[in-house]
Amino acid sequence: MPSPEHGPAHRARLRYAWRVCSVTSLGLVLIGIAGSTLNVALPAVVRHFSADPFQSGWILLSFLLVNTACLVLFGRVADLVGRREVYLAGFALFTVASLLAGLSPDVWFLVAMRVVQAVGAAMILANGTVIITDAFPPERLSQGMGVYIGTLSVAQLAGPTLGGLIAETAGWQWIFWVNVPAGVVALAWGTVTLRRVPPGPKQPVDALGNALVFAALSALLLALSEAGSRGPSSPVAVAGAVVFAALVPAVVLVERRASHPVLDARLFGGRMLAFANLASFCNALARASLVLVVALYFQAARGVDAFTAGLSVLPVPVGMAVASPVAGALGRRVPAYALSVGGSLLSTAGLGVLLLSAGAGTPYWVVGVGLFVAGCGSGAFLTGNTTQVMQGLPAGGLGVVNGFRLMVMNVGVVLSVGLSLSVLAGSVGPELGAQVYAGTLSTLSPVAVEQLMDGFRRTYAVLCAVALTGAVLAALARSDR
């Protein structure tokens, strides 16, 4: 008599689970391509609009900020009205916003469309991991998660080259328009594949908590971007820092009193979840800006075009694409926390290579090795950490808890980009900062390039230290016992 693991019901569940994995993977492809293409093609957009450093930074930061602030909100909304409906609505919204972004008449309209894109992306990201966790049997979850994370790596693999090619040939508008057919396909396949799930118990949304978190992150990012473009003594930078400092205790007070807080620390009171999420924050802080920083290095310091820069950063997503499925397969024999620790250490090693070899004349193979090792570390960490956290979450309110998990990670992403851009722009002074974003600084003078290289060294040093901290935290997340 066949065991339940080999019976017809189990096989049917696995077939459905892999179809669900294809839908959620399309969501990551959509968002991964959108992010990685713009990271490389940003100088083309900046040159088209003649954007100053402040505007240039917010083309990226507006998306990251709004996406982060909305993750927990849409995890809660999905628990109320249905995960399938919110997930598919995210596809539709992201696709429409991508179409309109390519029609932007000025830089602030583009920023507004990036905000709308961010809302759609939050609806997708807040629910994709939960959908795939519900679909897979527990013993196969690491395999499904490895493929799921691996598709993001594939998107990031294609994105830099695609973004550079588009920027050099078709025009910056197509950086956004390439999302439209992918969004239409994802929406159609998701509508056909995903089963309807009854909504969860009706619980209030923490609107005030969401607003305060959004305001605090906005103030912090404003301070970082102004410090980079106009100096840390800029009145706007100082005001942003003061507002952020004032809002932090307000967030803590409101969240303690809220019946269903957006930052519910009680859900992460256990040792494993607390340290695993702190490790995820550190990994995102060390990882998120790497492709952007290196793409700017090749364009601003080495003077290459966007397409060549896109090819040059490929070792990062190649490493992620190699490591994610390998880590997923190992997950059946190796504890998830061990994959997280190993991934963090690889990321630290890769960033260390970039730090020690930073220079305008460094042979490319040295840079490529550092990028590949860092990419492998990110792929292994994301697979191990995501599996560990999702297996440790309570069944009730899974959507909002996962939304909080993603929010913690995305705060790291937001701060990574904001901090890296601030350090790089600040290293050459306000007057040359615009040339960094436009990718044209290498045409000015060797002195300016060397100033910029000092900025890269400082950036890599900070990211390397953060990655090492993440490894320590991942090791501490071994068990609640």
UniProtKB/TrEMBL annotation:
A Pfam family reported for this protein in Swiss-Prot or TrEMBL: MFS_1
Database matches in CDD domains: MFS_MMR_MDR_like
Subcellular location: Cell membrane
InterPro entries: MFS, MFS_dom, MFS_trans_sf
Residue ranges occupied by any Major facilitator superfamily (MFS) profile domain in the UniProt entry: 20-481
Highest taxon, organism lineage: Bacteria
Transmembrane segments: 20-42, 54-74, 86-103, 109-133, 145-166, 172-192, 204-224, 236-254, 275-300, 306-330, 337-358, 364-383, 404-425, 459-477
GO MF, one annotated term: transmembrane transporter activity
One annotated Gene Ontology cellular component of this protein: plasma membrane
SUPFAM superfamilies associated with the record: MFS general substrate transporter
Record's bilayer topology term: Multi-pass membrane protein
Protein name: EmrB/QacA subfamily drug resistance transporter
Native organism: Nonomuraea muscovyensis
Origin organism lineage: Bacteria, Bacillati, Actinomycetota, Actinomycetes, Streptosporangiales
